[in-house]
Amino acid sequence: MDSVQVVEAIKRRLSLKEVVSRYVALKPAGRGRWKGLCPFHQEKTPSFYVDEEKGLFHCFGCKAGGDLIAFVERIEGLDFQTALERLAEEAGVELPRRLGGERRKELYEVLKLAQAYFQEGLRAHPEAMAYLEGRGLSGESVGRFGLGYAPPKGDGLLTYLSRHGVSPEEGLKAGVLAEKEGRYYDRFRNRITFPIKDHLGRIVAFTGRALGDEAPKYLNSPETPLFRKREVLFAFPEAKARLREGRAIVVEGLFDAIALHQLGFSETVAVLGSGLSEEQARLLKTQEVREVYLAFDADEAGQKATLQSLDLEMARKFLFYAVRLPVKDPGELLLHPEGRALFQKALEEALPEVEFRFQEAAKGLDLSRPEHKRKVLEALTPRMLSPEPFDPVAERLKALVVERLGLSPKELADYLQARKRGRPLPPPPPPKAEPRNRTLLLELDVMALLLSLPEESFLNWVLYAADHVWPPEGSLLAEFLELARKEPRKDYLRSVLSRKEAGGILLERLMLAPEVDPSRLPEVMDKALARLREAYYLERRAKLKEVFLQNPSQELLREIQELDQAIEAERRIYRGL
């Protein structure tokens, strides 16, 4: 199979609507159509549509659009090849043998072997299992999350991989081996290992927790073609089912996540850095999470991570709560006889985002002193200056500031207005891909009509259009007709054209194109081509008139008159006269 056939096979097996639904809450909008809030820009009224029959998505607000592959590329921030590989694996479609795809497949196999080695290491070293039991973890939790142990030996995994035909270079690329001055050795030694999985449940990396005093306490795999720590959440595959109920608990530590699962809070996931990232927040949104409880460590770093998470652009799609822990971190609750009840109480008493922001801003300050009130006001100003016309968090924060700092609503409004004026203007939004040229719009209408036809009759109508309209060299329609004759595959053409400057409006016209009764197709096609020919004649006539005004001649006048006759003939066709 070539890449075009692979794309077609993926689209046959995967529903565009189902894939988009992982990221967008869709509602029916007519036969085979759904609508929702666009994931690519902030909006309150749905302008994002999915058309299952046409295999297209389009936002009438920001003009984002395309097919299944284009959606995954854009929503996940991937290139075409990586998006194709992800979808092919999910659909069970075999990709053509390519270096990139084969390498990724090999890396998954290396990581599976490493996981087998680490789990064998845990069974062979009772002291490692005793450490986990000492932390309160049950055998069921250890098995469910695939915990293992990397023995102290520096070449144990290296030798194990070699016995299974894996070279040191491949182990290095997978992130489980390290290299120094040409010598390869095990990256993880004398550490409890945590397999890190992607959203499909595939192992993409490991984290190792030192058993002794080795530094660092936690060691992560380096970033690889499979692993970027901003894009994964630990325990996400295990939490998926509960996340669908609408609530997520987000913690910092891997032990913390496992401990809370063991205590019954299986909607828990852990970040792999400090605070939630945009990509991780988007993962939560795919599971229709509405409420996010941030249960980061009770120290200063944990509170800073909480604030950082609240400031994400994606954060505006959730209701956030900050959990005040009764202990340093959630993992300690596993050893407390009332651990579950204590955490349940902390959830019930969690601070809504607005209250948490105010308390953090006012920490250590005396609000009876004007200069301290000023500090709180300045700390909260960036969040109150929301670009959204109605931002519920910003509005509640303003009300709290008025109440707690003793300001009048007018005083606060005047202050914020002055701050807004004093800030540099944001860059202007990029221009929409809406072409104003009438001829280009008519070309796009012809292309949209052709692309809406059944695959079996597509080429015949392309040839018909090419025989009945004569687009100027270099025009978009000329390029389309040339491409369609060489490669008459609609998916391929849509993919190519969607990346053009006018691609957004073409997708919009495709989404809006009504179904044409086959018996009326010749009439509809002839009228569309007549309008386009008229536009070409009008452009030619306008240019000739400019030349005629500067240098009149009988020859030019005669040509203008012939064009007038041709324009009138085309009008009779599309008016049905």
UniProtKB/TrEMBL annotation:
UniProt catalytic activity: ssDNA + n NTP = ssDNA/pppN(pN)n-1 hybrid + (n-1) diphosphate
Residues of the Toprim domain: 246-326
Record EC number: 2.7.7.101
Cofactor annotation remark: Binds 1 zinc ion per monomer.
Zinc finger (CHC2-type): 38-62
Class of enzymatic activity (EC top level): transferase
Keyword set includes Acetylation: no
Description of its domains: Contains an N-terminal zinc-binding domain, a central core domain that contains the primase activity, and a C-terminal DnaB-binding domain.
Family: Belongs to the DnaG primase family.
Function, as annotated: RNA polymerase that catalyzes the synthesis of short RNA molecules used as primers for DNA polymerase during DNA replication.
Assembly information from the UniProt record: Monomer. Interacts with DnaB.
UniProt-recorded name of the protein: DNA primase
Native organism: Thermus aquaticus (strain ATCC BAA-2747 / Y51MC23)
Gene: dnaG
